[in-house]
Amino acid sequence: MKKIALFLAASAMLATSAVAQRADPRPSYHFAPAKNWMNDPNGLVYYDGEYHLFYQYNPHGDRWGHMNWGHAVSRDLVHWQELPIAIPETADVMAFSGSAVVDWNNTSGFGRNGKPPLIAIYTGHNPKAKLQSQYVAYSNDRGRTWTVHGEVLSVGSPEFRDPKVFWHAATKRWVMVAVMALENRALIFTSPNLKQWTFASSFGPAGGRGKNWECPDLFELPVEGGAAGEKRWVLGINLGDNAVGGGSGGQYFVGDFDGAKFTPVPGWPGDAQWMDYGADFYAAVSWNDLPKDDPRRIWIGWANDWRYAEAIPTWPSRGLMTVPRQVTLRKSAAGYRIAQMPVREVASLHGTRQDFAATLDETPTALPVQGGSADLEFAIDGGSSEQVAITLTDGEGYQTVVGVNPTVDEVFVDRTRSGPHFHHAFANRHVAPVDLKSRTVRLRILADESILEVFINDGERTITDRFFRGGGPLRWSASARGGNAKLKLTAWTMQDGAVKAEAE
Ligand code: FRU
């Protein structure tokens, strides 16, 4: 029924509009708003049984502009319900990116009836005054309605934004990290009450530089493979352009944080360490206030790239989040590196399971994967081959390839032939360096109609790429070039996750 309604709506649109718009197959378990434009995740916080996902949202169209905080909630990180706008733009300021906390001790005084308030700390972007400064809004009804308290921190800059705030237990105060975007600096401030902020320190420029540093995050993680009880801090910094996948991407630093200053571990490389090697993982930030019995660090990214974000051929919404990912920190010979895997809750959407094994050669072997929405676990042995390819082919012959090149230690996503042309920066190939001396690799691929999230060797590297198709159903196949390879696959169909409010 829903599909028919959508088809009729799309045909009506085509009949009345000069621009041919096509309703693409919506992702089934990645969050997208019902309609219009979405960018960065904002205000990720857990409270009273709900994970909140706020996001940069334009309620007036499907390109960037009129930034509001859109809002969705979930009880399990995989079923999302879209709610009305949380924080609107005002006559003076757009509501740019930021974070949210539960003020458990009511340090702000905004609590009511003995219940802690939710506090959003975000950037007010004032285009007329050419000023970006930090604002506070609060909610006493589980994030459903918000009162803007107003500006709490300005340094008089037009490019000071994206505050990430969290409670620092050791020093018993709030910490904010925000960026001076053009200068490539992260500034750290502290506060007793979320309203008065004191400058503490500055970090950068460092690592990947350029236009712009955006959406910082700072959190502590235990070190797997480290000394007993070792913990380190991860500073995430997003880079607007010229990241490893071409356009926007995230980098991170590992070090120590004493409540005032972030110091990278000795020997931390001077070049950027990337969160993800694809083009479509940006503005990733993590949840605050997960339940006490849940020690995980979970983040989510905007699956898009500023180079072509406003041109991607989806309708009636333009903007998609990745699945929430658990972030961990490992120490190996290479040093401290993050790893990412889909949160375990993703498995609760599994439908039918199929197990499959094949020896591959140049003739494509059909894989038992139905359609564009699937959770796939591959174990690949490159054998004597020089390239193993997992290929998605649509009804018009467009192809997106996930490949393994054992001879050059690469896993890649090639979308040079994935869908009709819509932007010159899109058709490219993204490579993650992976040690393939053993010639074996494990790939977990989350596919969802227009996105591939590839987790390599338990998330030691990831490649996140959107793809768009000409039409028709997707077919999956695998092949090996230059020799034989072995493939084992466990494939699950996926049940719908994201609540699909129909576009009005
Ligand atoms: C990152 C970003 C942020 C800013 C927001 C505006 O994608 O540019 O720095 O707050 O988007 O929508």
TrEMBL record:
<dbReference type="InterPro" id="IPR001362">
    <property type="entry name" value="Glyco_hydro_32"/>
</dbReference>
<keyword id="KW-0732">Signal</keyword>
<dbReference type="Pfam" id="PF08244">
    <property type="entry name" value="Glyco_hydro_32C"/>
</dbReference>
<feature type="domain" description="Glycosyl hydrolase family 32 N-terminal">
    <location>
        <begin position="30"/>
        <end position="342"/>
    </location>
</feature>
<protein>
    <submittedName>
        <fullName>Glycoside hydrolase family 32 protein</fullName>
    </submittedName>
</protein>
<dbReference type="InterPro" id="IPR023296">
    <property type="entry name" value="Glyco_hydro_beta-prop_sf"/>
</dbReference>
<keyword id="KW-0326">Glycosidase</keyword>
<feature type="signal peptide">
    <location>
        <begin position="1"/>
        <end position="20"/>
    </location>
</feature>
<comment type="similarity">
    <text>Belongs to the glycosyl hydrolase 32 family.</text>
</comment>
<dbReference type="InterPro" id="IPR013189">
    <property type="entry name" value="Glyco_hydro_32_C"/>
</dbReference>
<dbReference type="Pfam" id="PF00251">
    <property type="entry name" value="Glyco_hydro_32N"/>
</dbReference>
<dbReference type="GO" id="GO:0016787">
    <property type="term" value="F:hydrolase activity"/>
</dbReference>
<keyword id="KW-0378">Hydrolase</keyword>
<dbReference type="InterPro" id="IPR018053">
    <property type="entry name" value="Glyco_hydro_32_AS"/>
</dbReference>
<dbReference type="InterPro" id="IPR013320">
    <property type="entry name" value="ConA-like_dom_sf"/>
</dbReference>
<dbReference type="InterPro" id="IPR013148">
    <property type="entry name" value="Glyco_hydro_32_N"/>
</dbReference>
<feature type="domain" description="Glycosyl hydrolase family 32 C-terminal">
    <location>
        <begin position="348"/>
        <end position="492"/>
    </location>
</feature>
